[in-house]
Amino acid sequence: MAATIIGAVTVAVWFYLIACRGRFWRVPDGAVAVGPSSSCSVVAVIPARDEADVIGHAVASLFAQDYRGELHIVVVDDRSSDGTAAAAHAATGPADAADRLTVVTAEQLPAGWTGKLWAVRQGIAVAGLQRPDYLLLTDADIVHAPDNLTRLVAQAESGGYDLVSLMVRLHCRGFWERLLVPAFVFFFFKLYPPRWVADPTRHTAAAAGGCMLIRRDVLERIGGIDSIRHELIDDCALARRVKATGRVWLDAASDTSSLREYRSWRPIWDMIARCAFAQLGYSAIALVGMVALMIVIYIAPPLLLLSGSLWGALLGGAAWLAMSGAYLPMLRFYRCPALLAPLLPAIALFYTAATLGSAIQFWRGRGGQWKGRYQAAAS
Question: Is residue 374 scored above 80 in pLDDT?
Answer without folding.
Answer: no
